[in-house]
Design goal:
This protein is of the alpha+beta class. It folds into two domains: about 40 residues, no CATH class; about 45 residues, no CATH class. The protein contains one helix and seven strands. β1 and β2 form a beta hairpin. The chain is globular, with a radius of gyration of 15 Å. The termini are far apart. The mean pLDDT is about 80. This is CRISPR-associated protein.
């Protein structure tokens, strides 16, 4: 299955590699437009977007919504930390 979106009248194809997990190669402008739309549509869910960069790790990512995994910066490298389980 794939996701086809239209940005400025041009189709953008993303491949769904797992349920709700899409991959594709887009420009920064298209990535930002997709992010704006999915973060608005996510409601009370959560979203993560990752892309290739010219950094030490080779990628960057951003998140939206509640999740136990939270991004942290360690000397310029983005890592993921886990919040403790809420046992209430």
């Amino acid at each position: 299955m794939s996701l086809r979106a239209y940005v400025d009248g041009s189709p953008i194809w993303l491949l769904e590699v797992r349920a709700g997990v899409y991959v594709g190669d887009t420009s920064k402008r298209i990535r930002e437009m997709i992010w704006q739309q999915i973060s608005q549509l996510a409601g009370c869910g959560n979203v993560v977007m990752a892309w290739a960069t010219n950094t030490e790790s080779g990628f960057e990512f951003q998140t939206w919504g509640e999740n136990r995994r939270i991004p942290v910066d360690l000397d310029g490298v983005r890592l993921v930390s886990f919040l403790p389980v809420d046992n209430q």
